[in-house]
Design brief:
The complex is a heterodimer of chains A (about 525) and B (about 350).
Chain A (H helix, E strand, L loop, with lengths): L1 H11 L7 H9 L2 H14 L2 H11 L3 E4 L2 E6 L2 E4 L14 E2 L4 H14 L6 H12 L7 H10 L3 H18 L2 H12 L4 H11 L12 H51 L6 H22 L7 H23 L8 H23 L15 E5 L2 E4 H23 L1 H11 L1 H6 L4 H23 L11 H14 L4 H22 L1 H18 L15
Helix pairs in contact in A: 2-3, 3-5, 4-5, 6-8, 7-8, 8-9, 9-11, 10-11, 11-15, 11-18, 11-19, 11-20, 12-13, 12-14, 12-18, 13-18, 15-16, 15-18, 16-18, 19-20, 19-21, 20-21
Chain B lengths: L6 H24 L10 H26 L7 H20 L11 H5 L15 H25 L4 H20 L11 E2 L3 E2 L2 E2 L3 H27 L1 H11 L1 H6 L4 H27 L1 E2 L6 H14 L5 H20 L4 H15 L3 H7 L7
Classes of the chains: A mainly alpha (about 525), B mainly alpha (about 350).
Chain lengths: ~525, ~350
């Protein structure tokens, strides 16, 4: 019976199998033989080698005599051919992989991705190897480099190849590798080059040839300059991104505070309402028009504006108007409103955060330098903030309503005497401010989760922007938001996020005491409060 | 000596004192637990907590109700007092913590070898009591000096005190600050050598809190009925005019702001041993705003109103958070709006028309 089966299997073996010798050494050999076998299998670059190695790491390889089997649940297959066995041999012995072998297998599996047909898998593998590949992978890297067409993967592979040459190559090869590294701007290149210049414990240099060392020194300087520039660009962009978020959050507050002189503690909840409006629009699209999902933002933006603006106008009519002339009470009443709004959202949508899925066209980013990626969603928020700012400026500077708003901000009584309907201006300005907060909420959905507490995180920051920038001029808000964003990010890189935040708060507190009217104050009697 | 209260007022005060100092200990310690008159641990603790809040509310009434300064930093001063007392209580744990070390557990966890400098002398009760009052007072003095000198007032002052509170909360959330980070201080064992969880200690703490509350009330009453109190009220109503009359408004505001901070620190120090925990969430800006609503509910500028408001709101909070937890924030939010819209003089204001001066 058994003999018959064996005969059957021999017939079924396909034309090209894995390197049988290597597989045998892998399974039956001692530790060193196993390592060599892995290297041999990897160099071959056969996808079936990956299957076998993975199975070995997971304890799914067994032997029956000299035969090597893959055991996956009930099905048993021959490791060399991949053919499933109709009746597997009963007497099997599992092949145990120790930790060292597991580590080697893991590295090998990662490396094997270099010849994977999927570009992302190759990219990830090349990235892992770029910082210094193991000597055994040299043939694989060479082969992958010869076949690779994607420029990004190629660049990383060249780094990996250079790292191999630096260690194993002759003088000429090392110099050429240094040239390759010197042209890149990756942190791995810096590490590799710096390693050449280190002194060993016996006093000699890691790189014996002085000429090569000099070349490495020059290349290192070039790489470091590029890296520093990239770091700075990344930091600047992070500051710009935070600044534009702060701007979106604070712009509406600046308008309502400027016009009515009241602090709207529910402003953060307007942001939250805008975010939830976006969530609702997104859910509707997913449920009813999944094919047009990428376009949901076009509807979410007006929805977020409208929801927050209507709510804001209702609040102004219902509560804030009745507290005219009592700013401290307004502060408390709007705080009460914010509590109710938060709890209402908890009742309607649950206390858990909800996820707003970004449309596909906002995924990914532009790579400015190696390691400095500007995500599209952040870029979009910067652009969106600029657009909202432009729109607000047009509205305030070029329309009749804007004229009225500016008039009431500067001198309410005089504006009223000249026939400005201040009550209506109040309502509309409050609606505008709240609507802009709603837009901020819509933007925030693209970079984080949406929860009932979303607004709370921004309320103190928006106040800081408004009091820092001063009231009554858009420029003040813009400068303050960007300045606080940049300073926050710079300090964050230097001292950590919490300390940065505390430092900014303390700075603003002291700034207000030096200059209570903010950076950009209205001139003249209007500024008297 | 000026009269602080009329005969009715003194009678009410005496009755409250008798209730606190005689009835509460009797009912909770002498009456057996099975009896209908027994005052259980839960009620004793709740009473103590609410009286601490009432002390804070009195302080808030002094700065907001009388001087017109809506400070959103009272919760910070309260928490600072609590942390000062918490440091002493942590030292009292001794070697009975999880790691049997002289250092509190969280420091062992952070792998610290010695107490950081600000823990100096914190095993002495008197030093921590001094810190509990002195640190909030000093902070308020320095902060208030700069703020009032630059004529920061109104909502601006509210906002920067809120920012200060927020910044302090972030600072205390950090493990490196040396106050236990997120978890703060808890698992206290003893106070002044007595075990902290027994009925006797708790009653003693409640009696001490009651004494502090009555003392604060009398001090505040004495202040606001004095010439000083009148200047304060004048500053609230027309600061510029008072300044033109030759008063240095900075000194008045600074004094009352600092005093209120010290009172809040005292309340915090009494609060922590009773609830058994202090952590940075006590400093959250929301807490400080809630203090304002206690005063607003009771009635600003009436002192008694502050106590009544603290009792009403916190009583309602205990009730709601147990019976209908999801409705508490609706209720609190509506309270903020309703009181500011319809009850500007608070609950006490409703009754004040009868018998003027009873408050």
């Amino acid at each position: 019976m058994r003999a018959f089966l064996l005969a059957f299997l021999v017939v079924a073996v396909p034309a090209r199998a894995l390197d049988e010798g290597a597989v045998h050494r892998l399974v039956f050999g001692d530790a060193d033989e196993r390592s060599q076998a892995i290297a041999a299998l990897v160099a071959e670059g056969d996808p079936r080698a990956a299957t076998l190695l993975r199975a070995l790491a997971e304890g799914e390889v067994a032997t029956a005599g000299r035969r090597i089997l893959l055991v996956k649940g009930e099905t048993v297959a021959d490791a060399l051919t991949g053919e499933a066995l109709a009746s597997p041999p009963e007497a099997r012995e599992e092949v145990v992989a120790n930790n060292r072998l597991r580590r080697e297998i893991e590295a090998a599996l990662a490396a094997l991705q270099l010849v994977s047909p999927a570009r992302d898998a190759r990219l990830a593998a090349a990235r892992a190897l770029a910082g210094g590949a193991d000597e055994t992978l040299r043939p694989l890297v060479r082969r992958a480099l010869a076949e690779e067409t994607d420029p990004e993967v190629r660049a990383l592979l060249e780094l990996a190849a250079a790292s191999l040459e630096l260690r194993g190559g002759d003088r000429q090869a090392r110099l050429s590798a240094i040239r390759t590294l010197g042209a890149s701007a990756s942190p791995q290149a810096r590490t590799l080059l710096a390693a050449l210049l280190e002194t060993r414990s016996d006093g000699g240099f890691a790189e014996p040839d002085p000429e090569v060392r000099a070349a490495a020194q020059a290349a290192l300087r070039a790489v470091e300059a590029r890296l520093a520039w990239g770091e700075f660009a990344g930091l600047a962009f992070a500051g710009l991104s935070l600044g534009s978020i702060l701007l979106l959050a604070a712009l509406g507050l600046a308008i309502t505070y400027g016009v009515m002189g009241v602090i709207n503690m529910a402003h953060g909840e307007m942001i939250m309402v805008g975010a939830y409006a976006t969530y609702v629009v997104q859910s509707l699209f997913r449920a009813h028009a999944p094919e047009a999902f990428g376009a949901y933002l076009a509807f979410a933006v007006p929805a977020a504006f409208a929801a927050a603006a209507l709510l804001g106008m209702a609040l102004e009519r219902g509560v804030i108007r009745r507290l005219y002339g009592r700013p401290l009470e307004t502060l408390l009443a709007t705080w009460g409103l914010s509590l109710i709004l938060m709890q209402a959202v908890r009742t309607l949508f649950g206390a858990q955060n909800v996820q707003v899925e970004a449309p596909a066209w906002l995924a990914g980013g532009v790579e400015l330098f190696a390691g400095v990626v500007l995500p599209w969603n952040r870029i979009a928020i910067v652009a969106f903030a600029a657009a909202v700012l432009g729109g607000t400026w047009l509205l305030l500077a070029r329309t009749r309503l804007g004229l009225f708003v500016r008039g009431v901000t500067q001198n309410r009584d005089m504006a009223a005497c000249l026939g400005v309907p201040t009550a209506r201006v109040d309502t509309l300005a409050f609606g505008l401010g709240s609507g802009i907060a709603g837009l901020a909420g819509c933007a925030l959905t693209q970079i984080g989760n949406v929860g009932p507490d979303l607004g709370q995180a921004y309320i103190v920051d928006s106040f800081m922007v408004v009091v820092f920038g001063g009231v009554g001029q858009l420029a003040g808000t813009v400068v303050a938001a960007l300045a606080l964003g940049f300073v926050n990010k710079l300090l964050e890189a230097w001292s950590g996020a919490v300390i940065a935040k505390i430092a900014v708060l303390v700075f603003v507190i002291f700034f207000i005491q030096r200059r209570p009217q903010g950076l950009f104050a209205l001139k003249g009697r209007a500024a008297q409060g | 000596m000026r009269r602080l209260y009329g005969p009715a007022g003194w009678t009410a005060l005496g009755a409250s004192a008798a209730l606190l100092f005689v009835a509460v200990p009797l009912l909770s310690l002498a009456v057996p637990p099975g009896s209908a008159f027994h005052l259980s641990q839960y009620w004793v603790t709740l009473l103590g907590k609410i009286m601490c809040y009432a002390i804070v509310a009195l302080a808030m009434d002094l700065v907001w109700g009388y001087a017109g300064i809506l400070s959103l930093g009272q919760g910070l001063f309260f928490a600072l007092g609590g942390y000062a007392m918490g440091m002493y209580l942590m030292r009292q744990i001794g070697r009975e913590g999880q790691y049997q070390s002289d250092l509190p557990d969280f420091m062992v966890f952070l792998d610290w070898q010695a107490f950081p400098w600000h823990w100096w002398n914190t095993d002495q009760f008197w030093w921590c009591a001094l810190l509990a009052v002195g640190v909030p007072g000093l902070l308020a003095f320095v902060f208030g000096y700069f703020a009032f000198r630059s004529r920061v007032k109104g909502v601006y002052f509210s906002i920067i005190t809120q920012a200060l509170t927020y910044a302090a909360m972030l600072l205390f959330f950090r493990n490196e600050t040396g106050f236990g980070g997120n978890n703060g201080f808890t698992d206290f064992k003893r106070i002044l050598g007595y075990p902290i969880a027994t009925a006797e200690t708790r009653v003693a703490l409640v009696v001490a809190t009651g004494a502090a509350l009555l003392g604060t009330l009398l001090l505040a009453r004495w202040l606001v009925t004095s010439r000083f109190g009148r200047v304060l009220a004048a500053i609230r109503d027309a600061e510029t005019r008072v300044a033109f009359c030759g008063y240095h408004t900075l000194h008045y505001k600074l004094f009352v702001f600092t005093l209120a901070a010290m009172i809040c620190g005292l309340a915090g120090a009494l609060y922590v041993p009773q609830v058994g925990i202090i952590n940075p969430s006590e400093m959250s800006p929301a807490n400080s705003i809630e203090i304002a609503i206690w005063v607003a509910v009771g009635g600003r500028g009436t002192l008694v109103g502050a106590i009544v408001g603290a009792g009403l709101v916190n009583g309602a909070k205990s009730f709601f958070t147990q019976a209908f937890p999801e409705f508490w924030l609706y209720f609190l939010g509506l309270l903020f709006i309703a009181v500011t819209l319809f009850l500007p003089r608070g609950v006490v204001g409703l009754f004040a028309r009868r018998g003027a001066g009873a408050a």
